[in-house]
Amino acid sequence: MPETPHTEPAGTRDPAAGSGADLTITPGLLRGWALPDPGGDKYAKGRVLIVGGGVQTPGAVLLAAEAALRVGAGQLQMATVRSTAPLLSTAVPEAYVEGLPEERDGDISPDAAARVLELAASADAVLLGPGIMGPDAARALLERVVPHLECSVVLDALGMAYLTAHRDGVRHLEGRVLLTPNARELAETLGEEHDDPVDDVLRAMAGRLAAQSRAVVLGGAATSFVVTPDGEVWRNESGAPGMAASGAGDAKAGAIAGLLARGAGPAQAAAWGAFIHGRAGERLTAAIGRVGFLARELVRELPTALAEIEV
């Protein structure tokens, strides 16, 4: 847990940060902003809890979960609807899987909140949102969960619906929270128009959300921006056209949550996660072509993309 609000923990913050200009994320920048040592046993590498999914969308949790392990998280827990929990337990034998009560429409019931908080009490990082099918369901659950969390938190996908209703709802997690909206989710959270905004508009929107929520925001489209509440900005240009496909965002959110569990701060996890996710897409483009690869293949490329930097 960071000792100082708004910034990365001592020893994890890029020395060039705070210069006033956007920093482009490169392998060299990341090597100078090294991740916590991945050595030690599984407990030292951190425990990540992923909460999400629905009867029709178990794959989102699966992609996020595997991505968290692929970037080095030591322990994995998944909490999802009871109907699909046995399937996920079989698909990811490395994980503990909790089946939660579900609504008639197949989303997680708000009554699951108490059990989610029990699991989160022993987690180093919690990812909330992948695969939740309806914004009302997301709000109802997260209103009972987020205010009581104390660990590092990632809000992704429809998890952002909680912030739409409660713009200050993560302020108690200052220094420990990261928001990962896509361009549409970013606009909807702010209550603004979404009409294929250009990079400068997306950067400004991410900055407004970071300032209002006091959270680090990773937002954008082909180019993404990591923005802190104090206005520090990192620009990520890694990636490929074929990554604009179902499940890619879930994989990125899972990778970021895994890095947080390892001990990275929110801005560092966002910068590293966004870059290696994009680099995985570039590698697949070189091997397969501009389109046609799957999000699950992105996940499998993450260790190699990470190793390219951690030489």
From TrEMBL:
The subunit field of the Swiss-Prot or TrEMBL record says: Homotetramer.
**Family matches, as NCBIfam families:** yjeF_cterm (TIGR00196)
Give the UniProt family note.
Belongs to the NnrD/CARKD family.
Give the first-level EC class, as a single word. Answer: lyase
Summarize where AMP binds, as residue positions: G249
* Stretches the record annotates as Disordered: 1-22
Q: Which UniProt key words apply to this protein?
A: ATP-binding, Kinase, Lyase, NAD, NADP, Nucleotide-binding, Transferase
EC nos: 4.2.1.136
Recorded hits in PROSITE patterns, A to Z, give:
YJEF_C_3 (PS51383)
The UniProt entry's GO biological process terms, in alphabetical order, are: metabolite repair; nicotinamide nucleotide metabolic process
Source organism superkingdom: Bacteria
- Alphabetized GO MF terms: ADP-dependent NAD(P)H-hydrate dehydratase activity; ATP binding; kinase activity; NAD(P)HX epimerase activity
Q: What is this protein called?
A: ADP-dependent (S)-NAD(P)H-hydrate dehydratase
Q: Which InterPro entries match?
A: CARKD, Ribokinase-like
